[in-house]
Design goal:
The protein is an alpha/beta fold. The protein folds into two domains: 59-319, Type I PLP-dependent aspartate aminotransferase-like (Major domain) (Aspartate Aminotransferase, domain 2, 3-Layer(aba) Sandwich); 323-466, Alpha-Beta Complex (Aspartate Aminotransferase, domain 1), CATH 3.90.1150.10. The chain has 20 helices and 17 strands. The strands form five sheets. A seven-stranded mixed sheet has the order 4-10-9-8-7-5-6, with helices on both faces. Bound molecules: pyridoxal-5'-phosphate (PLP).
């Protein structure tokens, strides 16, 4: 039995939890076992370090700390100030940003903070200024209704969902779709790439207040210098949501025109995807927007989560170490090895490959919907998620795509050889799965047929692939 610090810490924590509610302790242990056994290819997930995880499990969780460092609405926040200031300092240094706001509880929250900061900065509305300055109660009813009308008129131009954009970029299922009059830019149907001339044309026609770049399912780099020029040409504020690729920016894989920080007016991110931190969000900006961004709480956010800010400080300190740059470049090497392996076996990939951490397989070539493919892969021990492809005939629910990403497996230490083996397993499952039929014999978009022996054999091979790369090797629960 291991007696290193990490094992002792997690074992002791479970013992304490078990004494109160053993089923929670059991679920936590089971989650580690499940994660250890699964070939996780979900592009938005990762494995945070034990130090990051442990920084979250403590009494910082007990503290209210509305406000910002040194200017709180609660007494006794000196230690929260310490961790919030540290997280912000690491973020500024890591990304070369003038200002960092580390309170957002998630990526959605970070985007809402950014939207409100931009609105307050750009929209000439005394009512909005009052609202943003926490004087919302001083508004008359007429001012309040006028404000709602003015905001409803504001425009946002973002990447379309089927081209890989995100719901929070002005789409109806998210509040941003109710805040803004939204229009999208897509990708070139022939290449699958962003056509910057088309983006410029859409911007000229639509005259957005905000131009958003960033994605959750676009497998290529984005040229942020060109996007900034487009924004400037129509007087828009340029916002980049780097939630997915923040780790590649931190690790200096995306530099120059592909690093959003020097080009955007404001950058948002999550901290838990390729950046490998705790679940949470963050906003980076220049001095012009800093005051507005710092009003995120209580404009958009509830009280900050000091325990998560402590974990952000730890994870960002880790990302400033030289080995993180090596990790980030291995993420991309692995994604390219996976893409090459799939292409060699005949798979069709959106844009024909990748230059970031994710690959989008168009599974219609296998005669499947994304939903059928996702389930067949899951039956075979391979965890992915279905995703729309550009102009997807199967819509956002069934989809025609499977999105796979390499940040998590790269954290475990898997490399190019294992990526090729993974491509073989994915191809085998997709090739051996056929679309099923419903009870009436009609073609189904959800049902599928996969020989259980194939699923079992692939599952065994997937488990074998992981054996030399244990997850959290420093943690033995006993
Ligand atoms: N922005 C992008 C580009 C994302 O991909 C996501 C999550 O998938 C988010 C924002 C939202 O992040 P969260 O789930 O932390 O709210």
């Amino acid at each position: 039995m291991s007696h290193n610090a990490e094992s002792t810490a997690f074992r002791s924590a479970l013992e304490v939890i078990r004494a109160v509610e053993p089923r929670v302790a059991d679920a936590i242990s089971a989650e580690l076992a499940d994660q250890r056994e699964s070939l996780k290819l979900i592009a938005s997930e990762n494995y945070a370090s034990p130090a990051t995880l442990l920084a979250m499990g403590n009494w910082f969780s007990d503290k209210y700390a509305e406000g910002t460092v040194g200017r709180r609405f609660y007494a006794g926040c000196q230690n929260v100030d310490t961790v919030e200031a540290l997280a912000a300092e690491h973020a500024r240094e890591l990304f070369g940003a003038a200002h960092a706001y580390v309170q957002p509880h998630s990526g959605i929250d970070a985007n809402l903070v950014a939207f409100w900061a931009i609105l307050a900065d750009r929209v000439e509305s005394p009512a909005l200024k009052k609202a943003q300055k926490r004087q919302v109660n001083d508004l008359t009813e007429a001012e309040w209704f006028a404000l709602r009308r003015e905001l409803g008129d504001q425009r946002m131009l973002g990447m379309s969902l089927d081209a890989g954009g995100h719901l929070t970029h002005g789409f109806r299922p998210n509040i941003s779709g109710k805040m803004f009059d939204q229009r999208s830019y897509g990708t070139d149907p022939a290449t699958g790439l962003i056509d910057y001339d088309k983006v410029a044309e859409a911007a000229r026609e639509f005259r957005p207040l905000i131009l958003v770049a960033g994605y959750s399912a676009y497998p290529r780099k984005v040229n942020f210098r060109i996007m900034r020029e487009i924004a400037d040409s129509v007087g828009a504020t340029f916002m980049v949501d780097m939630a997915h690729f923040a780790g590649l920016v931190a690790g200096k894989v995306f530099t120059g025109d592909f690093d959003p920080v020097p080009h955007a007016h404001i950058v948002t991110t999550t901290t838990h995807k390729s950046l490998r931190g705790p679940r949470g969000g963050m906003v980076l900006c220049g001095p012009e927007l800093a005051d507005q961004v710092d009003r995120g709480c209580p404009m958009v956010l509830g009280g900050p989560l000091p325990h998560v800010m402590a974990a952000k400080a730890v994870a960002l300190a880790e990302a400033r170490r030289p080995d993180f740059a090596d990790y980030a470049s291995r993420i991309v090497d692995n994604a390219q090895a996976l893409a090459d392996g799939l292409l060699r076996r005949g798979a069709s990939l959106v844009t024909g490959g990748t230059d970031n951490h994710l690959v989008l397989i168009d599974v219609s070539g296998y005669g499947l919907t994304g939903r059928q493919a996702e389930q067949a892969l899951l039956d075979s021990g391979i965890v992915t998620n279905r995703n729309a492809v550009p102009q997807d005939p199967n819509g956002a629910w069934y989809t025609s795509g499977i999105r796979i990403g390499t940040p998590a497996l790269t954290t475990r230490g898997l490399g190019a050889a294992e990526m090729d083996a993974t491509a073989e397993l994915i191809h085998t499952v997709l090739d051996r799965t056929t679309a099923g039929t419903g009870p009436d014999g009609a073609a189904s978009k959800a049902k599928y047929v996969l020989d259980p022996a194939v699923a079992e054999s692939v599952g065994k091979q997937a488990a074998d692939l992981l054996t030399p790369f244990p997850l959290y090797p420093e943690v033995t629960l006993g």
